[in-house]
User: Fold this.
Amino acid sequence: MSRLLHIARREYLAYVRTAGFWLSILALPLVMGISIGAPLLMSRSAQPERLAIVDLTGQGLGQAVTRALDEEQARAVGRALRTAAVAAGGATAGEAVRKAQAQGGEAQARQALAALNPAVAERFKAPKASSVRQAPPKTALEARDARAAGLVLRREIAEGRLDTGLILSGRDDAIVMDLWSRNLAAPALESELRGHVTDIMRERALMRSGVAPATLKAADALKPTVNSLSPKAASGEKVSLRDRLPTYVGLAMGFLLWSMVMTGAGILLNSVIEEKSTKILEVLLSSASVPEIMGGKILGVAGLTGTVIGLWSLVGVGAMLAFAPGLAGDLGAVLVGKGLLLYFAAYLVGGYLMYASLFAGIGAFCESQRDAQTLLGPIMLVMSVPIIFMSQAIRTPDSPILNILSWIPPFTPFLMPARIAGDPSMVQVVGTTVLMLVTTVLIVWISTKAFRAGALATGKVDLKGLVRRLLRREGV
Amino acid sequence: MTTALSLDGVSKRYGDFHAVRDVSFSVPQGRICGFLGPNGAGKTSTIRMALGLIAPSEGRISVLGSDDARKVRDRIGFLPEERGLYKRMTPVDAIAFFAGLKGIGDGEARKRARVMLEGQGLGPFMNKPIQALSKGMAQKVQLLSALAHEPDLVVLDEPFSGLDPVNQQALEGMIRGIAERGATVLFSTHVMQHAERLCDRVVLMARGRKVFDGDVAEARRAAPRALVLEGDLTATEVAALPGIAAVATEPLPDGGLRHVATLAPGADGQAALKAAFAGDLALKRFEAREPSLHDAFIVLTGGQA
Assistant:
C-alpha cells in the first residue's frame, strides 16, 4: 500500500509542478469568461448607430418604423431585467419580474426588481439600443426622389455626421428601402429595420383589405397562455425553470465527466508510454507489483483530476456567488437536493477507473505515441458515441436509443448523468450502475494482465501476441 | 558460505523459442559474479527471471533465501540494460523516489541521496533536472538509485555500456565498494576486461545455455595457450616445432614475420623454445602468452561475439 501511495505521490507531483498543468487549469475558466464576457463587453462598449430616416412614401412609414424600434428596445430592457432578477434571486424572482412587466411595463418591472434586491436594481444597466434616431438634413426630406435624398445622406455619412441613413420610398405594397451605411455591411441593423418595415407593410396590407386597426392590434397581441405541466415538477404540476435546471446541469455534468475522464486517461497513457520507452517501467517492476504500479499511477492522476475539478468548482462557485447568487442557490439545491453530486461522483469513479486502467494497459505495450494511436483508434471511435447522443438527452431523456445505449457500460458514465434529471426508473439507474461497476472490475483485471505482459515486451505492437499473453499467467 | 542467488534447471520459452535452457548456477553471498555472454545468449531473460519480473517455464530460483524474488524486493537493487530516468526529476528526487519504493523513509532517502551524489562528484548537479546532466552523470544517478537502499543483492545488466573509460573505471570502483559492504553483485557484460578485473567468478552463457561456471583462472584455462615468435622464420618452420597445433602469421612493419602459434592441450612452450634454438632458427622475439578471458569467451561461446 505504501508503494502504491509513493507512486501516486510522484505521479501527482510530476504534473502539478509543471507550468503546463496550471496553464491548462486556467484555460477553461479563461475561455469561458471570455466567451461570456466578450459579447457583453462588446455590446456595452459599442456606440449605437446614429440613424436618420427619410420617409418619402407620404404614408407615415418612417414614424411607424421609429415606434417599432422603440418597442423593440423596451422588450430588450424587459428581458435584461428578468435575467438580472434570475441571477440575483433565482427562478422565482425572474417570474415575479416577468409578471410585473406584463402588468405595468418597464417601470413596474424595475420596481419589482428593486423590491427583490435593491442593490441589483441600482446596479442594473439597461442594454444599449442598436440605434439612436437623428433628424435628417432638411434637404434630404425635401428631395424629389430616393436618389436625390441618397446623395444628401451619402455626404452626411462620408463626413462623419451620420452612421446609417434609411430612405423609404414607393407606396403600399411596393415599398423600397435604401439603406446607406458607414460600413460596407451593417447586417444587424439592416435585418432589424427590414423586419420592422416588413411587419408594418403586412399590417397595412391587412388594413387596406378591411381589417380594422383594433382587430389588427388585438390579433398582434394574441398568444396562448402556455402552462408547462408535469407530475415530476416540484409543485406537482407547473414546470418552472428550477424544475428544468437539473436537465441542463446533468448534461453539463455528462460533458464534464467525458472530458475529465478522457484527460485523465490521456495523462496516464502518456505517463506509461514515457516509462515504457525509457525503461523506467522495468525498474519499477523490480520494486513494486503491477497492481501497486497501476494503482499508484491511477490514483496519482485521479488526484490531478480531483484538483482540476476542485479548482474549477471553487472558481465557478465564486463567480456565481459574485455575479448570480440566486442562480447559485438554485444550482446548489439541484446538485444536492436531487442527488446529482452523488451520481456525478459515482460515475466519475466508475468511468475514470474503466478508461484509466484500459489506457494504462495499452500504454504498457507502446514505446511511442504512434504505437498508441494504432491501439487507441477503435477505442476513440467508441468514445465519440456518447458525445453524439448526450445532447439528445435534453430533448428526449427517455428515448429508446438513449435507454439502450445507457446499458452499454462504456457509455453509462456519460449518458446516465445527462439523463438522470429525466428521472429514469430505479431499475435503470441501479442496473446500469451495477453493470458499469462489474465491467470496470473486469477491465481493471484485464488491463492489469495486459500491463504485466506489455511492460517487458519490446518491438512492434503485436495484437495476436497481446491476446495470447493475456490468456497466460506471468510473473510480477 | 551462504548462497545469495541460485538457479536450478531454469528454462524460459516464448512459444516455440527457447530463450534459456536448463541453466543452473549459484552466487555466494558477498561475491562479484560476472554474467557473460554474447548478445542474445539469454542473459537478460535469466536476470528477469531471477528478479521475478518473468516466471521461468521450468526450474527453481532462490533469491536471498526466498523462492520468490518478489518477496525480497526491498533487498535487491537492479539496474536494467537500457537505462532511463524521469527527465524532469532532479537526481536527489530520483534517488529518493526509488529508495522510497524500497521502504526507505523520505527524509532518510534524501539524506542518503545527497551523501551518495556528493561522493560521486555530482553534488553541484543534485538539484538540476536529469535532462540537464550528461549521459555518464545520468547513468551514475541511476546506479545510485539502485543502491541507495543498501541492497543485499545488486543485479546490474550491462552497467558499463555507454560509459567513457573514466566513468567505467569509476563504476568498477563502485562495484568493488558494494562487495566490500558485504553485498552480492551479479553483473552482465560482454566486455571481458571488466569481468577479468572485477569478478571472483563468472557464468558464461551462449545460445540460451550455460557454457561455463567457475572462477576467472579456470575460465582462462579453457582457452589454449599461445606462443608469439618473431624473426626471419617461416610458418612451416614454426608449425614443425613440438606441441604446436596451429599457426597464424602476419608481416611486421620493419620486415620479418610474426607468428602466433597455438599450443596443443598439455604441450610445453619451453620445449618449443628449446627446439627453435636447437634448429638454429633466426628468432628475434619469443613470448609465451597466457590466454585472456576474452580468448576463453571466444572458445567457450564457439566464436560467437
Notes: The first strand of chain A starts at residue 49 and ends at 55.
